[in-house]
């Protein structure tokens, strides 16, 4: 079995055991989606046990729309039903089930999820239209079965459009048809909302096993709690991970910044994206098993320091007044590969180390703290956003420069009482990530270029008091390409 390799620009992160992803089909359902009900002559519906992608669940839900069409006959208006689905999955409007569009959002987390909700909702609605025209249920089950598909769906307060209301309360309709559409709306809303945490939501394998409730209703309790927070106050990372686990690993009780489950690993999406562009809160599914354990499939990933505020700290020191080739001397500037190493704690959680190797030295930083540092970092303000009271422009002589190797040699988290400090990452993203995990995450400003204009803009970034840390995050692609060419055949993956 090979290790999993994650390419980020010209660099890579290697860890765990690569898993074969779900190949776009439901795997081994244990029973049919439609079964005879307890009432003679009628049929029940549920999602069969198996492993699904989001697209496959939308396809499976299509049988409910087909049953409505069969039961209403000539009175059916499929376009009205599909339009209602689109409006329910929108983030604004009378029929929306998630009114994020009506909120004035300023925090990073809710802004990211609001964009996600729109993107996912539009795609699910498009898939619903595509599958509606293929009539899979009618071909596989026949009109007689669909005409007698009857079950109780609890009202979930999803609004119908006026056209759908006229259709479903008209003379050709009845309670059974209303239940079918209620269930469809609720299941597709649960699906959309359950996928909100995941940047690559279309790829995430969802395993449905023995459930006490129909379809995705096992997520309802976590869904209600998460949406209450999302609509009321800024999002925190812990709540997002907990909500993601409620879908993929509901048996997982421990908290963490990510987790492993049977079909892969869930970690913040920033791991696989260049830092300047990476989302701060979204998660990502990676087809890799991080920790081998005979006792459990689901394992939470714990921070080395559960509370960074009380973590041990080291003072950075005065540094030097000149930036130079410190990292070239230690070999850090030429690193193109990092590895992740996991260790199981007695609690059953795993602690993951982000490791860089240069010459004979190994530099290790807690992966969870790297994600914390990225969530809390500051950026330089846009050129058109001038502060009312600009800070004094620091002279070059006022900036203290520090070699990354020195920062890594200090114990605990690294901080300073005052001053402006620039950390020598050399534009190497892997080194910059490690430094994010080593610095106390309070007043760190990520730079993309590190030129004079950006350094000047940095004076108004971050907090207006205390020590400030400048960290160059942009990759120098030309330099990395030359390193790759020189290292060809020498790197072990």
Largest sheet descriptor: 5 strands, mixed
Provide the residue-averaged pLDDT.
87
The helix-and-strand class reads alpha/beta
Tell me the fraction of residues in β-strands, as a range.
15-25%
* N→C terminal distance: 12 Å
**Uncertain segments of ≥5 residues (pLDDT<50)?**
23-30, 476-484, 486-493
- Radius of gyration from the alpha-carbon trace, in angstroms: 26 Å
Which strands sit side by side, in order, in the main sheet?
Answer: 1-2-14-15-16
Net shape:
elongated
Helix content: 25-40%
Number of strands: 22
Total domain count: 2
Number of continuous helical runs? 15
How are the secondary structure elements laid out?
Layout: E1 4-8, E2 11-15, E3 17-18, E4 34-36, E5 43-45, E6 50-52, H1 54-72, H2 78-89, H3 108-132, H4 136-141, H5 143-147, H6 162-168, H7 175-194, E7 206-208, H8 220-232, H9 237-248, E8 258-261, E9 264-268, E10 283-286, E11 288-289, E12 299-301, E13 313-315, H10 326-330, E14 337-344, E15 350-358, E16 361-366, H11 367-376, E17 378-379, E18 399-403, H12 404-409, E19 413-415, E20 420-424, H13 429-438, E21 444-447, H14 452-457, E22 468-472, H15 477-487
Helix pairs in contact: 1-3, 1-7, 2-3, 2-7, 11-13
């Amino acid at each position: 079995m090979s290790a999993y390799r994650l390419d980020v620009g010209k660099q890579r992160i290697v860890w765990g055991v690569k898993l074969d992803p779900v190949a776009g089909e439901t795997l081994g359902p244990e029973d049919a989606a439609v079964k005879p009900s307890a009432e003679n002559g009628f049929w029940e519906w549920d999602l069969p046990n198996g492993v699904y992608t989001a697209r496959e669940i939308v396809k499976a839900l299509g049988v409910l729309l087909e049953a409505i069409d069969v039961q209403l006959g000539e009175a059916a208006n499929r376009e009205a039903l599909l339009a209602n689905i689109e409006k329910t999955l929108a983030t604004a409007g009378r029929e929306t089930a998630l009114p994020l569009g009506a909120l004035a959002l300023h925090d990073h987390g809710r802004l990211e999820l609001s964009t996600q909700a729109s993107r996912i909702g539009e795609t699910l609605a498009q898939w619903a239209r595509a599958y509606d025209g293929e009539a899979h249920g009618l071909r596989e089950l026949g009109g007689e079965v669909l005409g007698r598909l009857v079950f109780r769906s609890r009202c979930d307060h999803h609004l119908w459009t006026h056209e759908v209301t006229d259709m479903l309360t008209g003379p050709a309709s009845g309670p059974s048809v209303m239940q079918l559409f209620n269930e469809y709306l609720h299941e597709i809303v649960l699906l959309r909302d359950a996928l909100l945490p995941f940047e690559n939501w279309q790829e995430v394998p969802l395993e449905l096993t023995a459930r006490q409730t129909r379809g995705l209703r096992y997520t309802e309790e976590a869904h209600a709690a998460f949406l209450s927070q999302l609509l009321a106050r800024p999002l925190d990372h812990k709540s997002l991970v907990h909500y993601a686990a409620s879908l993929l690993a509901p048996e997982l009780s421990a908290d963490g910044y990510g987790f492993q489950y049977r079909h892969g690993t869930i970690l913040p999406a920033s791991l696989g994206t260049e830092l300047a562009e990476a989302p701060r809160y979204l998660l990502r599914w990676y087809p890799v098993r991080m920790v081998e354990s005979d006792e459990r499939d689901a394992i939470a990933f714990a921070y080395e320091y559960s509370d960074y505020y009380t973590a041990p700290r080291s003072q950075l020191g005065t540094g030097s007044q000149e930036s130079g080739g410190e990292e070239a001397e230690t070999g850090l500037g030429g690193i193109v590969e990092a590895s992740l190493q996991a260790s199981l704690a007695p609690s059953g959680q795993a602690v993951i180390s982000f490791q860089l190797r240069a010459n004979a030295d190994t530099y290790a930083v807690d992966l969870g703290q790297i994600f914390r540092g990225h969530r809390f970092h500051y950026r330089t303000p846009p050129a058109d956003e001038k502060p009312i009271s600009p800070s004094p422009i620091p002279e070059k002589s006022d900036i203290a420069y520090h070699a990354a190797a020195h920062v890594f040699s200090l114990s605990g988290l690294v901080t300073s009482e005052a001053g402006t400090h620039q950390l020598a990452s050399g534009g190497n993203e892997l080194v910059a990530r490690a430094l994010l995990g080593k610095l106390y995450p309070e007043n760190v400003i990520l730079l993309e270029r590190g030129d004079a204009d950006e350094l000047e803009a940095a004076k108004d970034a971050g907090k207006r008091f205390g020590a400030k840390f400048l960290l160059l995050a942009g990759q120098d692609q030309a330099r990395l390409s030359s390193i790759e060419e020189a290292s060809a055949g020498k790197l072990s993956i």
